[in-house]
Task: structure prediction
Amino acid sequence: MRNLLALLAAAFLAFAGIGWYLGWYQVKSDPTLSGHQNVNIDINGTKILSDVKKGREVVEEMKKNAAEAKSKAETDAPAPAAAPSSSSAVAPAITLPPAPSAIAPRP
Result:
């Protein structure tokens, strides 16, 4: 339960930060004559809707590109070669460079 509340708090903070950065809302504070603070929150609903629409278009384009790349990869991929039998399989030889000496010579 505590993890769920932490996830919700993180999602809210991310939404608030991204919304402020993208100009979805503005918070203004003005002092009044009586010494109180007047806080105004201006929400730009049309900007939110246009940004959400742009986001959906980007996601749809990404899905389309991924599907095209996958279908192209499947058609262009060569047929898998027959696996060698286990009795004739030989591991490739690996050559390693010589180990450095513990004390390097001074020039």
Notes: Residues 45-76 form the longest helix (32 residues). The longest strand covers residues 25-31. The CA atoms of residues 22 and 47 lie 9 Å apart.
